[in-house]
TrEMBL record:
It comes from the Bacteria. Keywords: Signal. It comes from Ulvibacterium marinum. This is Cytochrome C. The lineage of its organism: Bacteria, Pseudomonadati, Bacteroidota, Flavobacteriia, Flavobacteriales. Residues 1-22 form the signal peptide. The keyword Transmembrane helix does not apply. Residues 12-147 form the Haem-binding domain.
Length: 157
């Protein structure tokens, strides 16, 4: 029992100590996805869907939940954002070649069709990010159309 108590106290001390460490936040000001929106032109309702369900992990601006103030959750979330942005960042659309944009949209279609995005652990806590079938279809239709326009070179860079 004594050892258990010691270990518990040590763990508690660690938990308190790590509260003093905070990962850097992913925050942007202004129209950080302006180029992405201008080129891919999603309808106003779809813009809101993308913003509310993808931007937290795939743009330079995350809207953090209150529990991000608690370590180690903050580190876990920061990791997700970093990983998500590495794969796809709507705020860095300008840095992608036309071929890459087309490919990223292809992956968006795949992810939505297979119901892999938004991540499950995100939709557990973000009810409004659970996509309806209609929202899913509108993302896929928009991505398909935009891919075609990129492939036909119809989108001015
Ligand atoms: C909670 C964070 C989170 C949210 C929200 C989220 N994603 Fe992701 N996404 C990730 C992570 C992490 C990866 C990379 C690892 C993986 O594939 O699971 C990823 C990968 C992807 C990829 C693959 C890119 C590649 O290069 O392989 C696509 C496409 C994608 N997400 C699209 C979306 C779309 C579209 C939405 C909104 C409907 C969305 N994601 C919402 C975290 C997220």
């Amino acid at each position: 029992m004594k050892t258990v108590k010691k270990i518990s106290l040590a763990l508690l001390a660690i938990l308190i100590a790590i509260q003093f460490f905070r990962p850097e936040k992913n925050l942007a000001h202004g129209n950080h996805t302006e180029i992405f929106l201008a080129e891919t032109n999603p309808a106003p309702e779809l813009r809101i869907v993308l913003e509310e369900t993808c931007y937290d992990c795939h743009s330079n601006n995350t809207v953090y939940p209150w529990y991000n103030n608690v370590a180690p959750i903050s580190f876990w979330l920061a990791n997700h954002v970093k990983d998500g942005k590495k794969h796809l960042n709507f705020s860095a659309w300008d840095d992608y070649s036309v071929k890459k944009k087309d490919h990223k949209l292809e992956e968006v279609i795949e992810m939505i069709e297979n119901d892999e995005m938004p991540l499950k652990e995100y939709t557990w806590t973000h009810e409004n990010a659970r996509l309806t079938n209609e929202q899913r279809e509108s993302i896929i239709a928009w991505a398909k159309k935009t891919r075609l326009l990129y492939q036909l070179n119809e989108i001015p860079q």
